[in-house]
Design a protein that fits this description.
CATH topology of chain A: Arc Repressor Mutant, subunit A
Mean pLDDT of chain A: 95
Number of strands of chain A: 3
GO molecular function, one term (chains A, B): DNA binding
Protein name (chains A, B): DNA-binding HxlR family transcriptional regulator
CATH architecture of chain A: Orthogonal Bundle
Number of domains of chain A: 1
Number of helices of chain A: 8
Low-confidence stretches of chain A: none
Largest sheet of chain A: 3 strands, antiparallel
Strand order of the largest sheet of chain A: 1-3-2
Oligomer: homodimer
Shape of chain A: globular
InterPro entries (chains A, B): HTH_HxlR (IPR002577), WH-like_DNA-bd_sf (IPR036388), WH_DNA-bd_sf (IPR036390)
Distance between the termini of chain A: 28 Å
Structural class of chain A: mainly alpha
Radius of gyration of chain A: 16 Å
Order of helices and strands of chain A: HHEHHEEHHHH
Helix content of chain A: 55-70%
Organism (chains A, B): Flavobacterium nitrogenifigens
Largest interface: A-B, 45 and 45 residues
CATH class of chain A: Mainly Alpha
Keywords (chains A, B): DNA-binding, Transcription, Transcription regulation
Chain lengths: 137, 137
DNA sequence: AAATTTACTTGCATTTTGCAAGTAATTAAT
DNA sequence: ATTAATTACTTGCAAAATGCAAGTAAATTT
């Protein structure tokens, strides 16, 4: 892994340097929905990430402490990935992105209900989401 | 411009398909801070985007109605870029990203004050920011 | 013991990025 | 009026990232 030079200390920039690509936030999203995922779980997602890209993104996210690896309780052949606190704290970002996209694009039917709840009391929705996720740490 | 195939209707995915890269949100950020920017203004930003990348990102953002071009009042040689309503609505995303990064990374001194204000009353801060920006439309 | 599953890695073609230089249309300076 | 700068890009090319298909090694299942 090469150390990419830091472009600036702007918080937007620092964030983009870590997860500013077309895949990383989908991995984070999967972990927010499912709490724990195996490598295979990520590959099953609708967007069909390539296995080498998945491996490289997981590595970057792990190196930056957004996710951690755990032993799978059932099998040594499996690995569980889960969000760290730092990863969980991206929940507000994920919520706002979702709400933005919902305003301008079609959203799958099954997502609409959650988004309604998020809108009704955004702060509470976010706080509760984070609290729930942190229970699993 | 090639039409990239849609990977899924997930709102996170739809968003990433448009601005999921290392530069687009920096352009959006600049426009949120400065309201209107010329091509040269973007090039002056600390992160030093390459001119061809800037041109291609501006085109994508314009094609997706996040920004618009305006005639510069002073000169036909200049072009003004500004956010559309759809672009302005990304403000909550920008705020949450900033707050996330502030928790885990160094932030330039001059940004700290505004981030404090954002934290103190996030909803009001966001609403006011959006309202102000929409005045310029 | 053999077949399957799981988490990756590898090789290679395609695409995107980044850098440096170039261009065309204004605008400013002489 | 002519020349020099500005401004907003474009172009060419090397380097890096992405995407696809196939391969591998350890564990698990049959």
């Amino acid at each position: 892994m090469k150390t990419s030079k830091k472009r600036s200390d702007c918080p937007i920039n620092r964030s983009l340097e870590i997860w500013g690509d077309k895949w990383s936030l989908l991995i984070i999203r999967d972990l927010m929905f499912k709490k724990q995922c195996t490598y295979g779980d990520f590959l099953k997602s609708e967007e069909k990430i390539a296995t080498n890209i998945l491996a490289s993104r997981l590595l970057v996210l792990e190196e930056n402490d957004l996710i951690t690896k755990l032993d799978h309780p059932d099998s040594k052949a499996k690995v569980l990935y889960q969000l760290t606190e730092k990863g969980i704290e991206l929940f507000p970002v994920i919520v706002e992105i979702s709400l933005w996209a919902e305003k301008y694009y079609e959203v799958p039917e099954e997502r609409k209900l959650v988004l309604e709840k998020a809108k009704q009391n955004k702060a509470a929705f976010i706080e509760k989401g984070i609290r729930k996720m942190k229970e699993g740490l």
